[in-house]
Amino acid sequence: MSVTITVGLDGTGHSLAAADWAAHEAARRGAALRLVYAWVWRAGDTGFVGDRDAEERAVRAVLGDAAARVSGAHPALDVTTEVVVGDPVPTLVDEAARAEMLVLGSRGYGTLAGYLIGSVSLHVLRRTTRPVVMVRETRPENPAPRPSGEIVVGVQDAEAAGGPVLDFAFASAAERGVPVRAVYAWEVPPVLMWSPGSLWMAEQQGGLEPLHRRILADALAPWREKYPRVEVVEQVESGPASEVLLSATGGAQLLVVGRRTHEPGVRRLGSVTHAALHHAPCAVAVVPHA
C-alpha cells in the first residue's frame, strides 16, 4: 500500500513552507506527495460580484507553482495536485483521513494573543484522527531549524495511551538518524506544598524527581526496544509543562505533542499544544491518541 503525505495549500507563504517540508518528508520516506486546495466560490454569500473563472485559475496557479517548486527540489518525487471544491475544514479532515499525515502552514503567534484561535488549521486539528504537522514560514526572526536537530517529544501521558505520540517521534528520529529528546514536566502536588508529613513520606520513597524519572523511563522502555538505534535523551524538570517543553526546542527540527480524543463530543486542544503551536520555533506534529 502506497503512503501519501498531503498538504493543504491556501496561497500563503506559510503553506508553501508546509509544501517544502512535506516534500522533504515524502522524499525521505519514499512516499507520494498530494497538494490540495480546498476552495469555495463565495460571491453570493458576501455580495461581492467577481469573476469565478479568474479566481479558479488563480487557485490552480497556486497549485501549479507549488508543484513545480517541490518537483524542482525533488525530481523523483511523485506529486499530484487537486482543487477540491468544498469548505476547507471538512475537506482537509477528509484528506487527512486518507493520508499518512496532513501538513499545513501555521502563522504561529501573531501580534494579538490567540491569533490562531478560530483558524482553519485549529478546527482541522480538533477534528482529525490523523497526525497533522504545522509548519511556519522561515523568516529572519524565525530561522529554519537545523536539519541535524533533535526530535523533541512532550510526554504528558506516560501510560500506554500515549504510545502513538512516542511512536511518531521515534519513527521520525529513526528516519532522520537523529536523537529523540523526551521531555517530561512535573509539578509539586498542592497537598505536598502544605503538608510536611506528606512531603516527608515522599522523600522516604526517594523523592519526587526520581519518581518522575522512573515514570518517564518506564514509558520510553517499549520504544527504546522497538527503535534500538535511536539515541534517547531523557529530560525531567519541575515546572509548567508548556514552559519546560518549549525550553527544549531551541535546537529541534520537529516537536511532537499529543491530543486526546477519548472524550466524546469534546473537540479541543490542550494548553501545551496551544503553546507549542504559538511559540515553537520548529515544525509541530500534533498526534491524536486515546
Automatic annotation (TrEMBL):
Q: Ranges for the UspA domain?
A: 4-136, 151-288
Which top-rank group of organisms is this from? Answer: Bacteria
Q: Which Pfam families match?
A: Usp
Stored InterPro entries: Rossmann-like_a/b/a_fold, Universal_stress_UspA, UspA
The similarity comment for this entry is: Belongs to the universal stress protein A family.
Which protein are we looking at?
Universal stress protein
